[in-house]
């Protein structure tokens, strides 16, 4: 039981700004998707507070700020680093070096602008119905499964902490959590929601495939980018579906 609690606390502390301490272990991988409930719930509250101003745009901006704050900006930073590393025509070693540099380039800025604009536009269009929290859970299932299934591009990657905990039972737990999130969103939203989830998942998988092709593996930045891009793609698809009825 102590190991379970330590792993759960470690996952929450790692994936959010809540300082619970703990240590990262196999249990942490199972808990990672559940941290989406925390981040998504906090973002929902942020949207509700901003929306009280009478503007869904303000609500969307506040939701974005809360989302970035709750994750300490890690996933947005991951998108920036991944965009800089995967863009351009350079060798694999140079790509990995670029992703480790503290500076940001033009591709990083462009990627962040696109992600931010899409998320704000989507929330401005659809609001923040409670079932959208499932997107935060599903994206983190993808992140955890990525660390379970794919090789690492470098030994020093932060993802190695989780990759070393690969167990078959963890995969089944993550798949179950993902299915429950999808089911809840379909029940609380609409069956057509499945199309939005598939589109977003394909966006995240596209980033993953591109990274594996160029880096011959994944890094912590790639994992974070996969999650945030998948989330953003799902939000965009939901907004388009809402506009076209």
Structurally, the number of domains stands at: 1
**Poorly predicted spans:** none
Per the principal axes of the C-alpha atoms, what is the gross shape? globular
Q: Which value, in Å, is the CA radius of gyration?
A: 17 Å
Instruction: State the share of residues found in helices, binned by percent.
Output: over 70%
Q: Quote the average pLDDT.
A: 89
Describe this structure in words.
With 245 residues, this protein is mainly α. It has one domain. Helices cover 75% and strands 0% of the residues. It is built from 12 helices and no strands. The protein has helices at residues 2-15, 26-31, 35-51, 56-70, 74-86, 92-100, 106-126, 133-149, 160-163, 168-188, 193-215, 220-243. The chain starts with a helix and ends with a helix. The mean pLDDT is 89. It catalyses: alpha-ribazole 5'-phosphate + adenosylcob(III)inamide-GDP = adenosylcob(III)alamin 5'-phosphate + GMP + H(+); alpha-ribazole + adenosylcob(III)inamide-GDP = adenosylcob(III)alamin + GMP + H(+). Its EC number is 2.7.8.26. One of its GO terms (cellular component) is plasma membrane.
Keyphrases for this structure?
245 residues, globular
Offer a quick outline of the entry.
This protein has 245 residues and is mainly alpha-helical.
Write the layout of secondary structure elements.
Layout: H1 2-15, H2 26-31, H3 35-51, H4 56-70, H5 74-86, H6 92-100, H7 106-126, H8 133-149, H9 160-163, H10 168-188, H11 193-215, H12 220-243
Helix pairs in contact: 3-4, 3-8, 4-7, 5-6, 5-7, 5-12, 7-12, 8-10, 8-11, 8-12, 11-12
